[in-house]
Amino acid sequence: MDYREVKQIINEAERPLYERDNMNRDMVVKFLIEDAKKEHFTEEYRDSITDANALGVLISKYFKWDGIQILDCLQEALQDANFHTINKEISSLRDREGV
């Protein structure tokens, strides 16, 4: 995938949700993950870096290393994945710690 393809997909994101193709969104995320692996990890370790590792770095940088926003993002992902019990435990921990 090259820059033109990503730009086209991003432009399609302007369309209403019901018209969008989930595959296109997945392709953009995959492109960003692969780019992050190249940009943020040394070549010798790149093969051992998982998509989750790279996405974690992207999320951290996107939220400018703001742990509260990162935790909010984590909890939203857990809720969406139906990990309700773990999500409640994290909420309790955050309440106890004041974050």
Summarize the structure.
By secondary structure, the chain is an all-alpha fold. The protein has 2 domains: 1-62, no CATH class; 65-99. The chain has helices at residues 3-12, 22-40, 43-46, 51-62, 67-80, 84-97.
Which class best fits the helix and strand makeup?
mainly alpha
Number of helices: 6
Q: Could you say how many structural domains there are in total?
A: 2
State the end-to-end distance. Answer: 39 Å
- SSE pattern: HHHHHH
Mean pLDDT over the full residue set: 88
- Helical content, roughly? over 70%
Question: DSSP strand (E) fraction?
Answer: under 5%
- E-strand count: 0
CA radius of gyration is: 16 Å
Runs with pLDDT <50, length 5+? none
Based on Cα principal axes, name the global outline. globular
The major beta sheet can be summarized as: none
Describe this structure in words.
The chain is mainly α and 99 residues long. The protein has 2 domains: 1-62, no CATH class; 65-99. Helix content is 74%, strand content 0%. It is built from 6 helices and no strands. It has helices at residues 3-12, 22-40, 43-46, 51-62, 67-80, 84-97. The termini are far apart.
